[in-house]
Amino acid sequence: METMLIGEKYYERVTQPIITAKCWEQYLKLIHDSIDNDYSLRFTTYSGGYEHHVSGKCYLFNESLKTILVSGIIVRDTEIISIERL
Fold this sequence. Notes:
Oligomer: single chain
Helix content: 10-25%
Strand content: 35-45%
Structural class: alpha+beta
Number of strands: 6
Order of helices and strands: HEEEEEE
Strand order of the largest sheet: 2-1-6
């Protein structure tokens, strides 16, 4: 029996999400808007076969490496499934 701690477990092989340049630009606009207007975002990420949810205020950690700092957790662009405004 498997114990599931966070998120959904993917039992079939799933490749990492592919972020297009257009999609990344939309994410950047949302992130910049959340920083300017001081509201939180909820990131749904895929890592290690699990879907994780990270919520909180975000900061661009390194724009050239496409990494974001959310509640002390570094999120890479290749892990992002979706971003929602809270």
